[in-house]
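Thread: "does anyone have the structure for this chain?"

Original post by V.I.:
We have the sequence but no experimental structure in hand. Need at least a predicted one for the grant figures.
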Amino acid sequence: MSEGEICARHFATGKPVRLKCRGGFITEATAAATAPEDLWVAPGLVDLQVNGYGGVDFQQDDLTAGDLLKAVRQLRSAGCTRFLLTLITDEWRKLTTRLRHLRTVRSQSKELEAAIAGWHIEGPFLSGEAGFHGAHDPALMLDPTPEHIRELRQITSQTPLLLTMAPEREGALEAIALATSLHMKVSLGHTNASAEQLKRAVAAGASGFTHLGNGCPRELDRHDNILWRVFETPGLTAGLIPDRIHVSGPLFRLIHRTLGESVYYTTDAMAAAGAGPGRYKLGKLEVEVSEDEVVRQPGKTNFAGSALRPVDGVFRAAEMLGCPWQEAWKRSSIVPAKMMGLPCGVEVGQAADFCMLQAPGNNQSWKVKVV
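Reply from O.Q.:
Generated one for you, tokens below.
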């Protein structure tokens, strides 16, 4: 909303609030005497891991501003106003060339700059072990060097940058320390690191864990596995994919009981998200999506991203936890934004790109609109 006034219930307090907006920002936020019982206002969703959306695969080399705008607008219709455009493992030169191209395309549009809050580089500094590399090509994995880290910072300038890596790789701890000193955020993931390696990574500056419960084998040692090690490593904010597919309901609830407030939600969306069943590209891979929204490589059982719409993830998470939707909304907006140092909220000074939610009536679903 560029100019205007709205009255609704604040998602965090439940109390009526009147917001006035000017120049694309909230200029006043005051208590209101009344507001419709079924109308709520909440901050736009923030997704830290989007590989593609609405039929657009971000891993392609020839994407145009029109391609990205198509994805951005469909994400916005699903409640997501800002996200980290995610690039996955590839040959280093191809990956950095793609990143340079996307940064140039983003700079051509104010709408793209507002929506693409930064970048997430997931690979190639990941585990090559079977199960742990997931859909990433293990033949392309690399040990991180200072030159890799500095090149990423040079390409992205001061734009927010999240880097996922496995701390057991040679040189990883030094790379984490350097990345942190260059104002990057480091998330651990696709890793079979020992408990000691995880602790050292946190001491070096790592602060997140990418899609916990995924990027690991389907069968794990019951006595010692990456889940148990992460549970015992303080200092990590873990991402979860709340689609009821990547993490089962019981594990989803257990992770929340164990990690408490240190959980945020992401879709890990790829091109099929918001686009329906069919065959899609994820970089070099061809993947298929069936009616159950599971994304797989044909003939394989491992997942390759998700087809989850951001707003659907909020309500699925609330259903799995048996909690109010407002709690899940916070973990899809304020918590990931805070992790990346991004502004987020429904207060004076914040961008007026909030969501209006209308509670469902009989046999209806929630209606969500970004204002």
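V.I.: this helps a lot. The mean pLDDT is 93.
O.Q.: and The two ends are 5 Å apart (CA to CA).
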